[in-house]
C-alpha cells in the first residue's frame, strides 16, 4: 500500500532523528550541563522554534498543503507550481522583514521572553547575542516547511522526513568541531542552529528541483490564491498559538527561578517527548481521516468504535510508559545525561521534573485521540476555547506552585492542565453524543491499570537489587537500565495478556487494519 509505505518512510526517518536527537542532547548535557550557560542556549534555541511551530509548521503548513494538493489534482502541476512560487515569495519577504525587526529589537524581546535574566547583565547580554545568531534559522526553516509541503503533496516523503536529521547532525558537529574554537560552547551550538537552517534549505530546494519544482524569489504578489491562503492561516494560527503561548509561559516563569531550572525542564521534556512524539502523532494522524470519513458517511457506530479503539490503544501504551518513567526516572536521566558538566545534582533535579511530566503522558496522547472527535465534525472552535481555559489554569498553577516546588511546580502545572483539557474535551463530546465509552474499553481500562500497577511494583522492587549497577560505571548503568526496561516490558506484557487487558488477536487485527470485536 502507498499509504503504508509512506508512513513507514516517515516513521523510519523520525526514529533516526529521535535517536540522533538524544545523542545531541547527551552531548549538550556533557558540555553545558544544566547551569546558566545551558539556560541561555535553550532560550536562544526556543525563540526561533517558537515562531517556526506557530507559523511555518502550524498555520502556514496546514493551510498551504491542502491548497497545493488540490491544484495538483484539479488544475495540474503547472498551476500548482505557480501557486507555490507565489506563496514562497510572499512567505520569504514577510519572514525576512520579521527577522530583521526582531534582530534589531532583540534586547526588548528578551525582556519579555526571559525576564528572569534582567538582573544578571552578563547572562542577559549573552542571551541576546546567542539568539541573534540563531534567529535567522526561522527564515530558512519556514521555507523548508513550505518545500516539505510541496514534496509531500507530490508523494515524495523521504527528503522532507530526513530534514530533522540534518539539524541534529549540524548540532552534533558544532559541539564536536566548534566548541573548542568559539568563545563558549553555547556560541558553537548557536552557530550550529544557524548552519542547520541553511543546510536544510539547500537540501529541500534541491529535492524540489529534482521534482521539477524550482522555487524562486520574486516581488511578492497578493494573488487571489495567496489571499485565500492567508485567510485560512488565521484560525489555525490561533489554535497553534495557544499551545505555544503555554510553552512561553513555562519558559518565562522558569527564567525567574534559580539557574538551571530551564535546563532541568528541557532535559526532562526531551525524555518524555520520545513516547509522546511517537504515540501521540501516530494516533492523531491515523484517527482523523478515518473518523472524518465515518462521520460524513453517517456511520455513527463505526465512528464510536474507532474513537474507543484509539483511546484504548493510547491507554494500553501510555499507562505503562508513564509508570515506568515515574519509577525509574533517576536511572534514565543518569544513563542519558550524567557526565561532564551534568552531575548528580542536575540528575536529581531533572529526574524530579521527569517523574512529574510522566504523570501527564497519557493525557498528552489522549488529547490526540479526542481532538479528532471535534475536527472530524468541522468544529475547530470548541477545542480552542477549551485550550484557552486550560492555558489560564496552567498560568495560575505555575504562579501558585513555582514558589514551594520551583521547577517541579511548573511541570506539575502542565500535567494538571493537560488532564483538565482531556476531562473537558471528553465531557463535551459525551454531552453531544459523540463519545460513547463501550463495554470493552471500560472493562479493559481496569485490567490495564492492574497490569500497570503490577509492573510498577516489579520495577520499584528491582531498584534495590540493581542499585549498585545503576550507580556504577557507564556500562554497568546502561546494563542495569536495560534489564529494568526489558524486564518491565515483559512483566507488563505477561500481566496484560493474563488479565485480558490485551489480546494477541488485537495486534494481528491492527496489523491487518481490521476491526476487532
Characterize the structure shown.
The protein is mainly alpha-helical and 517 residues long. The chain has 20 helices and no strands. It has helices spanning 2-32, 36-74, 77-104, 106-113, 121-134, 137-153, 158-177, 185-210, 224-255, 261-296, 300-327, 329-337, 344-359, 361-370, 372-375, 381-431, 439-463, 467-470, 474-499, 504-512. Helix 12 crosses helix 13. The longest helix is centred in the last third of the chain and has 51 residues, at 381-431. The chain starts with a helix and ends in a 5-residue tail after the last helix. Residues 1-7 and 510-517 have low confidence and may be disordered.
Structural class: mainly alpha
Number of continuous helical runs = 20
Number of strands: 0
**SSE order, as H and E?**
HHHHHHHHHHHHHHHHHHHH
What share of the residues does DSSP label as strand, in percent? under 5%
Give the overall shape, derived from the CA principal axes.
globular
Runs with pLDDT <50, length 5+?
A: 1-7, 510-517
Sheet having the most strands? none
Termini separation comes to: 24 Å
Write down the overall mean pLDDT. 81
Q: What's the Cα radius of gyration?
A: 23 Å
Helical content band: over 70%
Structure summary:
This protein has 517 residues and is mainly alpha-helical. The protein has helices at residues 2-32, 36-74, 77-104, 106-113, 121-134, 137-153, 158-177, 185-210, 224-255, 261-296, 300-327, 329-337, 344-359, 361-370, 372-375, 381-431, 439-463, 467-470, 474-499, 504-512. It has 20 helices and no strands.
